[in-house]
Structures are given as structure tokens and as C-alpha cells.
Amino acid sequence: MSVADVKKNSEQKMAKSIETLKANLAKVRTGRAHTGLLDQVMVDYYGSPTGLSQVANLTLIDARTIGVQPYEKKMVAVVEKAIREADLGLNPATHGELIRVPMPPLTEERRKEMVKLVKGEAEDAKIAVRNIRREGNESLKKLVKDKVASEDDERRGQDEIQKLTDKFVAEIDKLVSDKEKEVMTV
Predict the structure, then answer these.
(1) How far is CA 1 from the centre of its chain?
(2) How far apart are CA 26 and CA 117, in angstroms?
(3) Which terminus, N or C, of the chain has the lesser number of Cβ atoms within 10 Å?
(4) Whole-angstrom Cα distance, residue 110 to residue 159?
(5) What is the per-residue pLDDT for 183?
(6) Distance from first CA to last CA of the chain, Å, rounded?
């Protein structure tokens, strides 16, 4: 393993942390409807728990309403019950074969709670990035100890890993501020 390998490995891990943060932020509810909110809803499909997107077609009817249309008619009641029991604060209503899931407007207090949640996710991502930086620096120290790299190479490698860390932390901050604006917009 070389200094370049350590840097590349650290960068890949940091990028994965960003992807995880994006996925987690997508689950945070804003005033707008989006089908990603129902991703974690599990439906009892003939005795086995199955993701909602596997048993129904999810669409946006308008900015505040998600449409859920089960592929099988007899699954309508099961899907509606699963959405209601998913503890998302949603109250689905059935219209024939289509289940309408209106998004209740968020109160100011609830929006502030969501912002706290978003900031918590951001802090977790920053901790992950910093841990990756620490692992990278330890790997560089090990290369010097094993006499694979010089101390100058180690210093340069640490500087590069620090620049990567700064870049990814800045990206996390940007993602969080964008999500914060989205949550606080009425």
C-alpha cells in the first residue's frame, strides 16, 4: 500500500459518508410530498414483510399528496393499514383502488424539531469523515514505520487527507443548509 492508495481509500470512504447523509436527509419530512417518505414502510405481503414500492406504484398527485396504487386489488386495505401504522404521522384515505396520502402541514415547532434532526445527521456524517481522516493518518504513520514511505511523504499525505476532510465537511455543511431551508420554507 502506498500514500496514494491511502488517500484514494480515504476519499472513497468519505464519499460513501456523503451518500449515506444524502439518503438520511431524504427521509426527513418537509412540507412537500415525495415518495421517498414511504420507502421504509413494510407491508405484510402473503406473510412476508415487503417494501411498499414492491407491492404498489407510488406517484405524486400534487405537491402535498402521494398516490399509492397497489398492484393487486385485495392489497389495498393491507397497504393502507401499513402506511397508517408506520408511525410517520400520515393518514391515508382510500378512493377505490387508489390510496391518497395527504401530507399534513408542519407546525413551526415540528419544523424546528426537523432542523435539529437534520443537524444531528450532519454531525454524524462529520464524525464519520473525521474518523476516516484519523484512520488515513494512522495508515500513513504505519507506512513510515514499515519504511515504505518517508516522513515527507507522510506529511504531504496528511495535508492531502486534511484537504479532503475540509472539502467533505464543507459539502456536508452545504447539504445541511439546503435541507434546513427546505424544511423551514412554509
Answers:
(1) 32
(2) 12
(3) C
(4) 42
(5) 82
(6) 52
**CB count in 10 Å sphere of residue 103:** 20
Cβ atoms of 115 and 108 within 8 Å: the answer is: no
- All cell numbers assigned to 107: 407546525
pLDDT at 83 over 80: yes
Residue 92 identity (one-letter amino acid)? P
The tens digit of pLDDT for each residue in 110-154 reads 888 888 888 999 999 999 999 999 999 999 999 999 988 888 989
The whole-model pTM stands at 0.69
CB atoms within 10 A of CB 119: 13
Answer for the pair 180, 117: CB distance below 8 angstroms, yes or no: no
Q: What domains are defined for the chain?
A: 3-27+107-184 (1.10.132.20), 35-102 (3.30.1360.40)
Burial of 156 (0-12, 13-18, 19+ CB in 10 A): middle
Question: What number of residues does the chain have?
Answer: 186
Instruction: Supply 183's cell numbers.
Output: 424544511
Task: Judge whether 36 and 24 are in contact, CB under 8 Å.
Answer: no
